[in-house]
Specification:
Elements: E1 3-8, E2 15-20, E3 26-29, H1 32-37, E4 41-44, E5 49-51, E6 58-61, E7 68-73, E8 81-86, E9 91-97, H2 106-111, E10 114-117
């Protein structure tokens, strides 16, 4: 069931709300940044995302094709969400870090389905051969 979650960085300087249904699915990817930061993500459309804090506290990092805006708190360094553009996802989207949702219950997190994506090989429609480390 879709509900409103509050998410934040570690120090609370970056805060947002996102309307999502964790039971509809989450994903983990094996691209270079997702692997190093052990990202666990859920996608929402722009109308389901609202900033609650001053955006001046947010830093940005891009690499490779620069299609994803990897955002982070300039104070504590935690990346709690990012955004990108993908026609397959309806244009602009937000990638919410599930582990940064402040009010998601342990049961919601434990029961959220996870899809694995082979971002390392730009094959986002298939899972990588190995997922245990993700």
């Amino acid at each position: 069931m879709r509900r409103t979650y509050t998410g934040s960085c570690h120090c609370g300087a970056v805060r947002y709300e996102a309307d999502l249904d964790l039971s509809a699915g989450t994903f983990k990817c094996n691209c270079s940044i997702c692997l190093k930061t052990r990202n666990w993500l859920a996608v929402v459309q722009p109308d389901a995302f609202r900033m609650l804090s001053d955006e001046s506290k947010i830093g940005e990092y891009q690499f490779g094709k620069e299609t994803i805006h990897h955002l982070f708190c300039q104070r504590c360094g935690v990346s709690s969400f990012g955004w990108g553009m993908d026609p397959k996802l309806g244009g602009k989207f937000y990638a919410i870090k599930v582990n940064c949702l402040d009010d998601a219950t342990v049961d919601e997190l434990a029961s959220a389905p996870i899809q694995y994506l082979d971002g390392r090989h730009d094959n986002f429609s298939s899972a990588p051969a190995e997922t245990r480390h993700l």
